[in-house]
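Posting for a labmate who doesn't have an account.
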Amino acid sequence: MSPATASTDPALACPIAPVVDIVFSRWTTPILWTLHTHGRQRFVELERRIAHVTPKVLTQRLRQLERDGLVVRTYHPEVPPRVEYEISELGLSLAPLFAHLAEWATGRLPEVERARQDYDSR
């Protein structure tokens, strides 16, 4: 790989870029947060708890999270069939990261808002 390619490839320029792509996409974080906070959920329960997510997008994100090993899908062959989702051990390993981010948000988002206001007032 040429130096030019390495400098333009985000995964090579920043080693956490693949993690950010996996964990911090638009709906992934709310899904993981909800499953971590409320435990095992049926699809409709997740849909109710995560405002504004469409069923199509929720289905897509859950499939991707299952593929990535962050969510476990359990199918119960009943009538009617029941499907439940829960955060996996791998997904739970993100809890300290989310805790640090929540702490940062509590302490620092007011500073971000002030910086935005200062910038916008120029």
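Reply:
Got it, the structure tokens are right above this. Residues 16 and 88 are 21 Å apart (CA to CA).
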